[in-house]
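Worked example

This section walks through a single chain of length 466. The input is the sequence exactly as stored; nothing has been trimmed or padded.
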Amino acid sequence: MNQITTISEETLAGTILIVDDQLPNLKILANLLKNNNYKVKKALDGESALISINKEIPDLILLDIKMPDLDGYEVCNKLKFNPKTKEIPIIFISALNEVFDKVKAFEVGGIDYITKPFQEEEVLARVKSQLTIQNQKKLLEIERNKLILERKNLKQEIKQRKETEAILYQSRALISGILTSSLDAIAALEAVRNPRTAEIMDFRCLVINPIMARVFNQEPEDLIGKLVFKRFIYKNNPNLFPKFIEVVETGKSLEQDFNYYYQEERKWYHFIAVKLGDGFAITVRDITVRKHLELKLKNLATKDGLTGICNRRTFDETIRKEWKLFQREKTPLSLIICDLDYFGFYNNFYGHQMGDDCLKKVAQIMEDTIQRPGDLVARFGGEEFAIILPQTDQHGAITVAKRIQEAIRLQAIPHEQSKVSDIVSVSMGIATMIPIAESNPDILIKRADQALYSAKNQGRDRYFIL
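Given that input, the structure is written out below as tokens.
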């Protein structure tokens, strides 16, 4: 029998490799992570890091960008081109006074970045977020392996049932005992045909176990011989009924997932239907727990851990998708990149907890201000946010920028250390393009970033259009 590997608590804790040519930085990060129960490995340069990873693959890498010989970009690039290491999440490390190409960092495969000097809360939050995603992936892989094994067992069980089809009709008492003890919902149905055309009109219930009967809110004996199948299917998923007819007419089995609301709760199921005489047998398994795990993983992978809005990965995927779409439609695509003015001073004065609360408030303000379903607000990095505005020209983008600035002003979040206002304010860079095949969304991002730079140079607390 196949064995399913389980994940121990030690595995879930996570192994982190820190790569930095500066010993003080290594010691600071290593002590911080060890004090929070993480297993830590260290490397002083890119080559040592690659050798270490080849011996033991870590769960997460904190990678300094500026290093001799192999810099962080090159190390990341090598890892992403290796099938064995391409899935390792990489958080870049960069000093505030160093030139940091954010677009290049994400293009080579980085998923986040932190800046020196390190802020403990930020480091721990970003590490925890990425390790949580990795752990959820591992748990999901285990669940998928279990499902594969269960499917094999289920197919074998159905094969055995088909081989004993004659016994099924001759020994109702024996079959009833088997069905009653099964943890899956099981039923056998007979085709009801039009006497003139011989077309299948419905299916009559021949055998049904208690779990399947529970779906209809009835007892098994009350369903035997009844025509309830078509009405139930058309109520929940009418596209399935012709597929069940095809099972009977062609002998080809049907296997898929479906969901519906049972007692005000959304439930997911996996079923297999196989031909049985002039009808079919169906086995249904509850996979709600696995689906909830998949949805949780999807949410972790697409949302920013602090603010709850879309993260940088979702932003990158969305803007590339919109770019391709509007190439065909020849319609404008606008982008606004926002930066909280003097937010470093805010953090230093009020503390990082208040800083996190401020970022959450601003993110929520932007989410509430954006009105169209197709618009997207994402955390771009640190105190930066990005807003994708499909089918929006320059005038429309300016209108959105003004609404956001006004909404933030109305919140009147105190900021005594700001040099432009006594409340939190925001600088914005606006760029609008009609996507063309010869270009790519990186151009739009770069223009919006340059516009933001100009807005800051002109005094902040304003927007600039490029």
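What to look for: The first strand starts at residue 15 and ends at 19.
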